């Protein structure tokens, strides 16, 4: 039984307000936009079932401890409690899961490895009853030494967090507490260093950032009559969830049916499982639907975060600014479980040089197992950390050379056919120098924007804002630039494909297209783009998007800026198959009446079949009649290959995207407060499938990068405990923190991609952070080697 109100929380039809011009390159209204703005959109946390129970998770208060004993008796005796489950109650031999390495226990067994790890589950008839019962579960712990950094993780006597690990990375890492290590060696960096006139080094640090999505983890599991379960959930990757869930439940995949519910943002934080298995276990144990909704506090423990990083870089250059070599070492903290750490290491290593031509490099990137919170996918995926460091280095090198920092970047900027440190040639446009030129040429915002006609300052425009801490005294303006490179799509030999099913039929006398994929709409606007593609390819106005579920083949994850490329490519491909079937039917039924039916190049436009010259052959509805035309198929981009584990060479990424920023900031140099006045961006998107949505993606990514620069950090103490799991203490940019964000969109087509498009959502998150830091450095003269920047980094305290 589907939950009341439908499982998706979004209308399935995309016809409202689109008109006839709503194809590729247009900006039709989003069907979920009005509902989200007015608060009427149904998210997964809004789902309801008349006889449902509520689930609750008991979590560890320790970062590393042995579980000595566990007593659930008192919890079971509480009125209203229907089930209490521990590791011993799991129904199948498979009791771990994971995106790549199945090292994460469904419920802790023997010991806990991070603060907040799930230990037991409760199902009750009211959420407060479930929480009170969970508090009555008695767990005795014996605390163990904590692994919290590289030194403690790789010491000779370090506790092994996953002893006996036998995953495919274990054989090539120098210590069992290293998840994965990727070196990249090209040319001879040591010899090239001897040719450098100037060498600069720097050590940098990136804090742990949270995805801070709007809707906390939530879902509803409904037991089925066939012994299976129907799960309605907010996620980024339905089929990956299914692959991990079914074995733990002891069920075949066909008995675990998953439907996407309304998703309140993701940014990588929903790529891993959270409450999915727990809700299903409780539903199957009680025979009742079970809903789990995390509160904000629990959400901070319930999903992975951005990897904190320590980075050491060395760059050399000739006196005229030509880069001679680059050496770097990147250490990412993966936390207690692997999640996406191996892939994040690959990204950080392969993109660590940035969008620059450097022939001689020596790179090492690795991720650690520690007792800190697990880290995995987040917008930018390893490239963010590297970009902060290499862009700081470019500014440092420019200062040492006495050169304009933009000129230095342009002098070394890659272009099409440039060869990356992995040996891969960039075989599509790479307008790095042009992006920098555009942001630099943009007019500067006016000075002293806080001044008003009456002479009293507008504190909203000052550093510190409405806290009213300064009226302009000691405020200095700074300007900074940065540019970044981000891969698009899954990489390193991953079979990155998507599936689409498209049906064309007559409804009410009009041809209507029905598009079905498993793509997770997480706010990026993918359902709008899919309808645009169907209108363009099939020549219809009416398009309906079916809810995403596992009744159709996988669409992969809504991450890596890949969905418009890969699932959009699948929709386009399958629309072409449908079009050919329609034309074949037309030839069979009507071809004898007009010789043009026998020619190639017929089109579907305006609900009609027409020749390339525009001659109408037949209304589409007449050709379809009462028999719909349907097709389903998978679509893949060209393959990638794994990086060599010794040299890092290989065709690892299918596409690259580029963005540049200019930041203008005003800093109260006496109080250490920063106001970002403007963050101008220029980005190449290949083809703006939906121009309004593209600008929104760029502006959203820019603000997320600003958050990392100045505000956002999960604070973990030396005991590996999270100290600020709330939006009271974890600060994210508000509207008052958001600057003017003018966007300059380039459309330089990638010949290998559908419509020439280029994934757009992540690149601006890279370059906005170092641009803000460069501007703050310019205003203060401080080195600022760590993000986020705090007031005490700017002023002496």
TrEMBL record:
SUPFAM superfamilies assigned: CO dehydrogenase molybdoprotein N-domain-like, Molybdenum cofactor-binding domain
Domain Aldehyde oxidase/xanthine dehydrogenase a/b hammerhead: start-end pairs: 38-145
InterPro entries: Ald_Oxase/Xan_DH_a/b, Ald_Oxase/Xan_DH_a/b_sf, Ald_Oxase/xanthine_DH-like, AldOxase/xan_DH_MoCoBD1, AldOxase/xan_DH_MoCoBD2, AldOxase/xan_DH_Mopterin-bd_sf, Xanthine_dehydrogenase_dsu
Molecular function GO labels: iron ion binding; oxidoreductase activity
SMART domains in alphabetical order: Ald_Xan_dh_C (SM01008)
Annotated stretches, region: Disordered: 1-31
Name of this chain's protein: Carbon monoxide dehydrogenase
Native organism: Streptomyces qinglanensis
Upper classification of the organism: Bacteria, Bacillati, Actinomycetota, Actinomycetes, Kitasatosporales
């Amino acid at each position: 039984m589907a939950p009341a109100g439908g499982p998706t929380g979004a209308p399935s039809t995309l016809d409202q307000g689109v008109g006839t011009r709503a194809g590729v390159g247009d900006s039709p209204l989003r069907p979920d936009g009005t509902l989200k703005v007015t608060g009427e959109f149904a998210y997964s946390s809004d789902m309801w079932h008349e006889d449902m129970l509520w689930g609750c998770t008991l979590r560890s208060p320790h970062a590393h401890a042995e579980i000595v004993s566990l007593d659930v008796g008192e919890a079971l005796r509480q009125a209203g409690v229907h089930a209490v489950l521990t590791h011993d109650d799991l129904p199948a031999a498979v009791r771990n899961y994971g995106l790549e390495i199945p090292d994460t226990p469904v419920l802790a067994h023997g010991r806990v490895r991070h603060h907040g790890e799930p230990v037991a589950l409760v199902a009750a008839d009211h959420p407060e009853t479930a929480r009170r019962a969970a508090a009555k579960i008695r767990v005795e712990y014996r605390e163990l030494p904590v692994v919290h950094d590289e030194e403690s993780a790789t010491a000779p006597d370090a506790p092994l967090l996953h002893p006996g690990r036998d995953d495919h990375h274990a054989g090539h890492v120098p210590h069992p507490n290293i998840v994965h290590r990727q070196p990249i060696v090209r040319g001879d960096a040591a010899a090239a260093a001897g040719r450098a006139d100037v060498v600069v080094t720097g050590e940098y640090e990136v804090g742990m950032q949270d995805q801070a999505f709007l809707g906390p983890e939530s879902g509803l599991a409904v037991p089925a009559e066939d012994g299976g379960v129907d799960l309605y959930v907010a996620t980024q990757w339905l089929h990956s969830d299914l692959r991990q869930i079914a074995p733990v439940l002891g069920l075949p995949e066909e008995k675990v049916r998953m439907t996407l519910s309304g998703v309140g943002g993701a940014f990588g934080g929903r790529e891993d499982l959270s409450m999915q298995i727990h809700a299903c276990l409780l539903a199957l144990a009680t025979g009742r639907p079970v809903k789990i909704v995390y509160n904000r506090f629990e959400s901070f423990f319930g999903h992975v975060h951005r990897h904190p990083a320590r980075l050491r870089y060395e760059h050399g250059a000739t006196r005229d600014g030509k880069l001679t070599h680059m050496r770097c070492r990147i250490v990412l903290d993966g936390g207690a479980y692997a999640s996406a750490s191996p892939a994040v290491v690959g990204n950080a290593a392969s993109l660590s040089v940035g969008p620059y031509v450097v022939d001689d490099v020596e790179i090492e990137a690795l991720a650690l197992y520690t007792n800190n919170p697990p880290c995995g996918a987040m917008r930018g995926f390893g490239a963010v950390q590297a970009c902060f460091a290499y862009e700081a280095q470019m500014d440092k090198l420019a200062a040492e050379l006495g050169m304009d920092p933009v000129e230095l970047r342009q002098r070394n900027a890659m272009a099409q056919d440039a060869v990356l440190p992995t040996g891969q040639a960039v075989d599509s446009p790479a307008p790095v120098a042009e992006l920098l030129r555009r942001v630099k040429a943009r007019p500067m915002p006016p000075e002293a924007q806080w001044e008003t006609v009456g002479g009293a300052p507008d504190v909203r425009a000052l550093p510190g804002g409405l806290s009213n801490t300064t009226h302009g005294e000691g405020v200095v303006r700074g300007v900074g630039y940065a540019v970044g490179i981000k891969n698009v799509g899954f990489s390193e030999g991953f079979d990155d494909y998507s599936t689409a099913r498209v049906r064309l039929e007559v409804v009410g006398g009009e041809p209507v297209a029905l598009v079905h994929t498993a793509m997770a709409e997480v706010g990026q606007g993918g359902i709008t783009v899919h309808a645009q593609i169907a209108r363009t390819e099939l020549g219809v106005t009416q398009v309906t998007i079916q809810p995403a579920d596992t009744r159709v083949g996988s669409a992969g994850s809504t991450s890596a800026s890949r969905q418009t490329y890969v699932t959009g490519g699948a929709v386009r491909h399958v629309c072409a198959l449908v079009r050919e079937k329609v034309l074949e039917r037309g030839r069979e039924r009507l071809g004898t009446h007009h010789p043009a039916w026998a020619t190639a190049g017929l089109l579907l436009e305006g609900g009609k079949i027409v020749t390339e010259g525009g001659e109408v052959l037949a209304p589409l509805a007449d050709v379809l009649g009462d028999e719909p035309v349907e097709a389903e198929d998978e679509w893949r981009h060209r393959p990638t290959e794994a990086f060599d584990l010794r040299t890092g060479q290989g065709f690892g990424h299918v596409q690259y995207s580029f963005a540049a920023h200019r930041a203008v900031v005003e800093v109260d140099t006496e109080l250490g407060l920063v106001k970002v006045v403007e963050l101008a961006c220029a980005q190449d998107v290949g083809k703006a499938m939906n121009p309004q949505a593209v600008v929104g993606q760029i502006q959203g990514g820019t603000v997320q990068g600003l958050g990392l620069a100045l505000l956002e950090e999960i604070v973990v103490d030396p005991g590996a405990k999270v100290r600020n799991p709330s939006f009271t203490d974890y600060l994210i940019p508000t509207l008052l923190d958001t600057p003017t964000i003018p966007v300059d969109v380039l459309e330089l087509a990638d010949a290998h991609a559908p419509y020439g498009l280029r994934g757009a959502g992540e690149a601006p998150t890279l370059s906005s952070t170092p641009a803000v830091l460069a501007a703050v450095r310019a205003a203060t003269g401080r080195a600022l080697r760590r993000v986020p920047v705090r007031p005490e980094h700017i002023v002496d305290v």
